[in-house]
User: Fold (diamondback moth) hypothetical protein from Plutella xylostella.
Amino acid sequence: MDEIDLLEMGSYTELQGGNILIPKGYSSILEPMTKNIAPDKMLTGDPVKKIIWNSDQHSPSDDIGDESEDSDQTVIEDMSKSSGSGKTVNDGSSKSVDTPHKPKKKYVEVQCGSGKKLYANHVICTIPLGVLKEEAANIFDPPLPSYKMESLERLLFGTVDKIFLEYERPFLNSDVTEIMLLWETPSSPEPMEDSWYKKIYSFAKVTETLLLGWVSGKEAEYMETLAMDEVAATCTKILRKFLKDPCVPEPLTCVCTSWKKQPFTKGSYTAIGVGASQSDIESLAQPLYRNVHDKKPTLLFAGEHTHNQFYSTAHGAYLSGRIAAQRLTDADETRESNIECTGSADLHAWIQGIQLEG
Ligand SMILES: Cc1cc2nc3c(=O)[nH]c(=O)nc-3n(C[C@H](O)[C@H](O)[C@H](O)COP(=O)(O)OP(=O)(O)OC[C@H]3O[C@@H](n4cnc5c(N)ncnc54)[C@H](O)[C@@H]3O)c2cc1C
Assistant:
């Protein structure tokens, strides 16, 4: 809590309507959204290493012919540097082009870990804040403007982890739904190894034989360094202490998330650190133009860290993606116009459109 800006606490907006449980996890949201996209038009498992977004900086030989703002070539893949067979990705209505190739004139070049290169007129970057904080300086060429780099520095990407404990048999009364844990404040600072578990604020019953613990902050990051059986043993000690029952069984399995350790998240979600503000989120959301006369931005940003009210949420991520896409699809969009934050009415339509299979 010491790292969170108190003045900015109110900037986060709670979406009305309560929580909904998505039965099969986020894949049941992605599936209806992606089912109309041909699999060969999606590239997975190949991280972006570089985004060269100002082709004016390329050598003149890279500029091949003219290109209008309305080019039908959405994304073109150059397999010449990768081991796979050549293929073309475009928007479905356009012609296929043999590889290797580049789109005409102005383009963004996206280089992937495999060596594959993709060329596009516009790129919406949804790399999470945790990854951007560590890698933005290496990813973007030319570098991001300093106002964005400073906002990346100021904003926090905190860690929240889950601890799942699975038991052979139920051991809690059936009317118990959650065990809340409250510890006395220590008189002097305690070493992390002796105190991390005090940040587990509850164990909630998911089923009669499955408990879910939540842990956050530096303590969560520390937990990610521990072996699962060590976490399980500590949780058992806590449960025995709080329930005053030495017979609380050891769990059969203990599984913990490790959002901080994961190279493609490096944390869980955005928080406004001391000295940061909502305007840092707005700075991160600002699209970048290749030059002052362009009607549409070249490099856009989306993801939960770019929504100034719903940051740190899935709906914030969704809405920010819509806003970025609308900037490109709105024919009348000019760089001066200010796209309004899509509101919760839009979210309602989104949720209605998702077939939540039980
Ligand atoms: C424990 C926990 C509980 C949560 N509970 C809720 C909740 O109840 N309600 C809610 O609304 N939100 C919740 N959230 C937050 C929500 O999950 C996130 O805010 C949301 O997923 C963010 O979406 P995003 O698209 O911005 O980022 P992500 O979902 O992180 O997507 C970013 C993607 O970019 C990929 N990526 C990273 N680096 C690269 C790279 N170099 N090249 C290519 N791809 C890359 C990642 O693999 C990932 O697929 C929770 C999060 C956590 C961790």
Q: What stands out?
A: The two ends are 37 Å apart (CA to CA). The CA atoms of residues 61 and 107 lie 13 Å apart.
